[in-house]
Design brief:
This protein is an alpha/beta fold. The chain contains 13 helices and eight strands. The chain is globular and about 55 Å long.
Length: 272
C-alpha cells in the first residue's frame, strides 16, 4: 500500500476547502497520509519572481518523498502544472539544471523524481470501486467542468470526464480555460473582467454548477463573485463552484452540506 504525503497548495485561502474535502473523502476510501506538505504554488507568477528558490522547494519535496519511500498526493491542477513545468525546465534548460544541481545536497535522478507524485482524482476514482455509495445520485444535473487548457490532452487520455459522468450521473460540459487569479494583486480589474467572461459563458449554457480542481479558479470565481457580477453588469452570481471531491462525497449516504464545507462558499451550493 502506498504511503502518501498530502500536498496542500497554500497560496489561496480556498485551499482549506479543497484540502478538508480531500481528507474526508480519503478517510472514507481508506487512503491515509503520513503528513501534509504545504507549499505556495502557482505557475504564471511565482516561478518567475524567484525561480531558483521556487524550484528548490519543489526539489526538496520530491527528494524527501523519494528518501522516505513516499508518494506525493497532488490535489489541485495548479500544483500538477507546477510539477510538470519543473520537469520541463530541468530537461530543456541547461542553465537551470546546472543551478539546481549545485543547490542539491545529493545527486538528482530526474526519472526517479518523476515517479514521486500522483494526481488525487485518479487515485480517488479508482478507489471508489470498493466504496459503498449511491451511484448516479447527480442524474438530472448539468455542470460545466472548468479545466486548465494545458491539461486538455491528458484529460482526454485519462477519460476522467467519462468516468465521473458514469459514476455520478452528471452531464458534464468541459471548458478549457486559463486562470486569471494571478492578476488579482497586480491588475484586479482585468482579473475580474476575464473571470466574469468565463463565468457567465458557463452560466449561459444552463448549468447547475461549475466543477473545477483549480484552486485559483475557485478563488477568483467564488471568492470575488460580487466583483465579477459588478464588472460584467449581470444578475447576481448564483451558480456555485464545486471541487471534484465535494461532488464525489455527495454520493455517500447521509453526507451533509456542513461536512462538505458548503457554508464557506461565497456562492452557496443548495444541492444538499
Amino acid at each position: 500500500m502506498e504511503s502518501y504525503v498530502l500536498v496542500q497548495n497554500s497560496l489561496y485561502q480556498s485551499s482549506e476547502i479543497l484540502t478538508h474535502n480531500v481528507k474526508l473523502l480519503c478517510e472514507k476510501l481508506g487512503i491515509s497520509f503520513v503528513k501534509t506538505e504545504r507549499l505556495p504554488l502557482e505557475e504564471k507568477f511565482l516561478p518567475f519572481l524567484a525561480p531558483l528558490e521556487f524550484h528548490k522547494n519543489l526539489l526538496r519535496v520530491f527528494q524527501n518523498a523519494l528518501n522516505d519511500k513516499q508518494k506525493l498526493f497532488v490535489c489541485d491542477s495548479q500544483t500538477l502544472l507546477s510539477f510538470a513545468h519543473f520537469f520541463k525546465l530541468f530537461y530543456e534548460n541547461s542553465e537551470f539544471r546546472e543551478s539546481l544541481m549545485k543547490e542539491s545536497t545529493r545527486e538528482i535522478d530526474i526519472l526517479e523524481l518523476e515517479n514521486t507524485f500522483a494526481f488525487a482524482p485518479e487515485i480517488m476514482l479508482s478507489s471508489l470501486k470498493r466504496a459503498e455509495i449511491k451511484p448516479r445520485r447527480w442524474s438530472g444535473f448539468r455542470c460545466a467542468f472548468l479545466i486548465d487548457r494545458e491539461l486538455e490532452n491528458g484529460l482526454k487520455e485519462s477519460q476522467i470526464i467519462e468516468r465521473i459522468e458514469d459514476l455520478t450521473g452528471l452531464k458534464i460540459l468541459p471548458f478549457f480555460k486559463e486562470s486569471y487569479a494571478y492578476l488579482l494583486e497586480t491588475n484586479p480589474h482585468l482579473a475580474y473582467k476575464m473571470g466574469a467572461t468565463d463565468y457567465y459563458a458557463m452560466v449561459d449554457c444552463g448549468v447547475d454548477f461549475i466543477l473545477t480542481q483549480n484552486i485559483s479558479q475557485f478563488e477568483l470565481l467564488d471568492g470575488h463573485c460580487k466583483k465579477l457580477q459588478s464588472t460584467a453588469g449581470r444578475d447576481l452570481a448564483e451558480i456555485p463552484i464545486l471541487f471534484i471531491p465535494q461532488v464525489i462525497l455527495a454520493l455517500f449516504p447521509q453526507i451533509s452540506a456542513q461536512e462538505l464545507r458548503f457554508a464557506q462558499h461565497k456562492i452557496p451550493p443548495l444541492m444538499l
